[in-house]
Design brief:
By secondary structure, this protein is α+β, with helices and mostly antiparallel strands. The chain has helices spanning 3-87, 99-107, 132-135, 144-164, 187-209, 236-247, 271-337, 342-364, 376-388, 412-428, 482-493; strands spanning 113-116, 122-126, 168-172, 178-183, 216-220, 226-229, 253-258, 261-267, 372-375, 395-401, 407-410, 435-443, 447-454, 497-504, 508-516.
Length: 519
Amino acid sequence: MNLYSNKQKWKIALLVVALILVGLSLFVSNDIVTRVRERERERATQWADAIKKKAELIRLTNRTFTQLREKERSEMEMWIDAIKEVSKPSLSNQYTDYSFPMKIIRKNDRIPVIVFDYEGNISTYNNLDFDTSQLRPHFPKSSPKQLEQHFEDSLRQLATNWGKKGRKFTIRLDAISSMTCVYNDSRNIFKLEQERDSLIQAFNAELISNESLVPVVLLDAESDSIIASNVDLGPETDRQIFLNSFKKINTPVPINFARHQNSLLYFDDSPELKQLKYFPYIQFFIIGLFIFIGYLIFSTFRKAEQNQVWAGMAKETAHQLGTPLSSLIAWIQLLESEGVNPEIVREMKKDTDRLETVTNRFSKIGSDARLEQTDLIETVEQVCHYLRSRISGKVQLEFEASSQQLLVAHNPPLMAWVIENIIKNAVDAMDRNSGRIHVKISADEKHAYIDVADTGKGIPQNKHKTIFQPGYTSKKRGWGLGLSLVKRIIDEYHRGQVFVLKSEPGQGSTFRIQLSLNN
C-alpha cells in the first residue's frame, strides 16, 4: 500500500477520533451545566417561596395593625364621649353620677393622648413615653420654667404630627366652648411595627448579602416594577435596558403573592455556572495549543532530520559516482589514444559529462549553493536543447523567452536540475508519451517567471500542494522525490516559489517558478 495514502488515512482517522472525543466532552459538560442550572432554578424557586411566605406574614401583620387601629379608634371615641359627659356643665343642683365615664377615662392606660381646651392650651395628657426629666440632658442650662415650656412645645409638635394622620377629635361642650383631643398608636402597635420593619430589613439584608443565591429580579407582572432584587441595576437611565436583557436569559417563574398581585421571578445563571460553560472550550484551546506547539517542534526536528538525510544521501551518491566516473574518463582517454572510432568516443564523452553534471548536482545538496548573476534564459535553453534528443520523439518541446537575456541570481546546475525534473514529470504525465511541452520565460519589475506547460492528464485541485511533498507519486514506479527536490531547491536555495499555476484533469498542467530580481 502507498505510504503517503496510508498517512492521509491515518490523519483522517485521528481527526474523526478527535472530533468524537470533543463531542463527547461537550455533551458531558453540557449535561453537567444543565443539571446545575436546574438546581439553581430550584433554589431560585425556593427563594421565591420564602419571599411569598414572608409577604403573607407582612400582609397578616398589616391586617392586624388595621384591626388594632380600628379597635383603638373605637376606644378613643368612647373615651372622648366619657370626657364629654364629664365636662358637661350641670344645669341644676341635682347630683350626677360620673362613676362610669370616669371608669372609662381611667381605663385608658395604653393609648397616648393630648387634650387641648377651647383656647388652645394643653389641658391634660396621658400615656406619654417622656417627661421633663428626659429633656434635661438636651437643655442643661434651662430653668424649670423654661424646661416646662420646652416640654409643652414638644407636646404641641406631637399633637400636630398626630393630627396630620387623622387622629384628632373635637369635643363640643356648648355653643361657645370646645375641646380638642389628639392621640397616637399604642405601645403594642408600635412594637409590632418595629417587629415588622425588622423582618423586612432582615429579608432585604439576606437578599442582598446572599452570595450563594443566583442573580434574581422579582417584578410585578402588571406594572413591571421591581419588588426585590439582589442585582445592582445601575442608574435609572440604564435600568430598563438591563431588565430587557435580563428577561431574555431564562424562562421566568410565576409567583402569586396575593389574589390580585401576580409577580414574575427572573433569574440568571451564577458566575460559576457561566465559567463552567466555557471551561471545555478553554480546555480544548489549551490542549490544542499544546499539541500545535508540540507539532511545530516535532515538525522542525523532523525537517532538520530529513535535511540531514537528504544531504547525506546526496553526498554519498556523489562520492559513489566519483570513483567509477574517474575510471570511465581514463578509459575514454585510452580509447581515444588507440584511434577508436571518434564518433563512439564523442558519445561516451557526452555520457561522462552528463555523469559529472549529476555528480555536481548531488554534491551541492546540503551545502550553501553559490548564486551567480548569470543569464537565466541561457540556463533553461541549454536544458531544453539537451532533453530534446533524449525524450520521446512524439513529445514536442518548445522554448520561448520574452527577451534575449535575463540576468537573475541563480545556481545554473541546480536550476537545470529543476527544469529537467519538471519536464521529465510532464513527459511521464502524457498518454503514450505523446504531446506538447511549452517552456516560457518572462519577467516584470520584481520577478522572473519560468512557466512549464504540458498537455498531460492534469492534476486534481486537491493535489496541487500535495505533489511537492516527499513520497507522493502517481506512478507505479518511483520514489516521489523529483518534485520534492524541485521545491527544496527553489525555496531553500533560491528563496523563490514553485507552484501549480493552473491544471485541469485531461487538459494538462502549468508549473510556475518565481524568482526575485532583487537578490
